[in-house]
Amino acid sequence: MTSYDPRRVRSDTPLLGRVVNGRTITYLDSASTSLPPRTVIEAMSRYYELRHANVHRAVFQTAEEATAAYEGAREGIAHFINAPGGAGEVVFTKNATESFNLLAKSWGATNLKAGDVVLLTEMEHHANIVPWFQLRDQIGIEVRFIPVGDDFRLDLSNIEEMLEGVKLLSVTAMSNVLGTINPLKELAAAAHRHGALIAIDGAQLVGHGVTDVTDLVMGHDVRGAGRTRTCPRTDDAADREHTPAAERPDQAPAEILEERWIDGGKSGEGKEQEQR
Fold first, then answer.
1. Is residue 89 within 8 Å of 82, Cβ to Cβ?
2. Measuring CA to CA, which residue among 156, 184, 157 is closest to residue 172?
3. Where do the domains of the chain lie, and which CATH numbers do they carry?
4. What residues contact residue 62 under an 8 Å CB cut-off, 6+ apart?
5. Distance, C-alpha 202 to centroid of its chain
6. CB atoms near residue 167 (< 10 Å)
7. How do 117-121 and 142-146 pair as beta strands?
8. How far apart are CA 257 and CA 267, in angstroms?
9. Which CB contacts under 8 angstroms, 24+ apart, belong to 214-217?
10. What is residue 244's predicted lDDT score, i.e. its pLDDT?
11. Alpha-carbon gap, residue 205 to 75, rounded angstroms
12. What DSSP state is assigned to residue 173?
């Protein structure tokens, strides 16, 4: 990216101008939460100062302005990720944890039955594991995992066999731990050959390059991008028309596990539950 200017980025991000222990901050935790630039902070301030109101609930001027801004953001996100169906395919959630809980407990609970298979990978964030474990315990689905090799890439040598009986492949586009960028086109093609849908955790990838969901997975089915990894205040989940949502029950925070095991989970007794 030849136009990248780190000095401009620092000047556009107020927190990076703060001095701690005699030095300006060097921030290395963007994989957890990225820092909002001045433009985002100012846009939020303008909203709260000038047009804070319920959207889609009133006809007075500030409420209509709030609704226009809200829907304008949806259109902007659809354009940013090249959602083929436009703004109608973008669903706002508060974070990636909520997105995957919504997927598991609405689409999953409605469309999956005992014996159906959900295929994940060993490099998934808890947000894309815990809801499927809970659904497994509730209705008897099977949860499988694509292994990670010694090179920190997915071992796809048996992918066709692993996809037998799979109804949904849910995979991270880019690991928040390893930095591995997964071959989404290959995975999507394999899933669709077996009649499975594919869900993409795009929380990390969206901040590291052009995100074209149509090109990435040749007609993806569901994709989530966590707001804690990007600058906007809300999460966007691109939801294709053929994955209908139902009513949503209580959610499973990503951090309810003390340890993660691919064949189950150990509850984090008394631990603070923090959602990403």
1. no
2. 184
3. 6-68 (no CATH), 85-266 (3.40.640.10)
4. 50, 51, 52, 53
5. 5
6. 20
7. parallel
8. 5
9. 214/82, 214/83, 214/84, 215/82, 216/173, 216/184, 216/185, 216/188, 217/184, 217/185, 217/187, 217/188
10. 42
11. 20
12. S
Residue type, 97: T
pLDDT, residue 258, reads 56
Largest CA distance in the chain: 60
d(CA 216, CA 274): 30
Strands 257-261 and 264-267: antiparallel
DSSP 72: H
Q: What angle do CA 4, 8, 13 make, to 5 degrees?
A: 115
- How many Å apart are CA 276 and CA 274, to the nearest integer? 7
Other beta carbons less than 10 A from residue 243's beta carbon: 17
The tens-digit pLDDT sequence of the chain (276 residues) is: 467 788 888 899 999 999 999 999 999 887 778 889 999 999 999 999 999 999 998 999 999 999 999 999 999 999 998 888 899 888 888 888 899 999 999 999 999 999 999 999 999 998 999 999 999 999 999 999 999 999 999 999 999 999 999 999 999 999 988 889 999 999 999 999 999 999 999 888 887 777 888 877 554 455 554 443 444 333 445 554 444 444 444 455 554 555 556 665 554 444 443 444
